[in-house]
Amino acid sequence: MRLSARSRLATVAVAVGDALRRHGIRAVLTGGACASLYTAGKYQSRDMDFILVGGTTQPRLDAAMTSVGFARTGDRYVHPRVPFYVEFPRGPLAIGGDYQIRPVTRSSRAGRTLALSATDSCRDRLAAFYHWNDRQSLQVAAWIGARHRVDLAHIRRWSDAEGFGRRFEEFLGEIRRARAGRR
């Protein structure tokens, strides 16, 4: 797949994930780019975070990224024509204290990649709200919850385990407002 300045984040993310997969590297799309996919671009991210699951070597990672036109610059990979960059934050794959994450496969013409589920992407954004009081992340979590079937019971249990049961109630209110079209 040839990427260009007009390539959308979803296309680039799947192309990168597919290149990693083809090079025997298991990685999961997380963070803001994943949230951008679940909000259909209502939330925009300029970077794509992939968490490596299992080991790989730097030469293998470089080869996978080069196969789709990205080159390593410091701790990120950039593409000469694509406005997004890719990073590989240190793992493990977790959301708060939960390490039992089950990625889903996202497919398109560009290939397929592993990503957080809608429920886990929502929890990922809520973690930023809970731990850093990031109000934008609360809004993005609500957009995801309003657009997709998320497991609210699972999110509630996780929120309670993280010590943020009261803030979960605020999240539910934001979902109601988002569904009513007020946000």
Account of the 3D structure:
With 183 residues, the chain is of the alpha/beta class. It has helices at 9-22, 31-38, 58-66, 118-132, 135-147, 152-162, 165-179, and strands at 27-30, 47-52, 71-73, 76-78, 85-87, 104-108, 111-115. The longest helix is centred in the C-terminal third of the chain and has 15 residues, at 118-132. It is globular and about 45 Å long. The chain starts with 8 loop residues before the first helix and ends with a helix. 40% of the residues are buried.
Write the layout of secondary structure elements.
Layout: H1 9-22, E1 27-30, H2 31-38, E2 47-52, H3 58-66, E3 71-73, E4 76-78, E5 85-87, E6 104-108, E7 111-115, H4 118-132, H5 135-147, H6 152-162, H7 165-179
Parallel strand pairs: 1-7, 2-5
Antiparallel strand pairs: 1-2, 3-4, 4-5, 6-7
Helix pairs in contact: 2-4, 4-5, 4-6, 5-7, 6-7
Strand order of the largest sheet: 3-4-5-2-1-7-6
Indicate how many domains the architecture comprises: 2
The Rg value, from CA coordinates, equals 17 Å
How many DSSP E strands?
A: 7
Question: Would you list the SSEs in sequence order as H and E?
Answer: HEHEHEEEEEHHHH
The residue ranges in which pLDDT falls below 50 over 5 or more consecutive positions are none
Main sheet?
A: 7 strands, mixed
Mean of residue pLDDT values = 95
Structural class: alpha/beta
Per the CATH scheme, the topology name of the largest domain is Beta Polymerase, domain 2
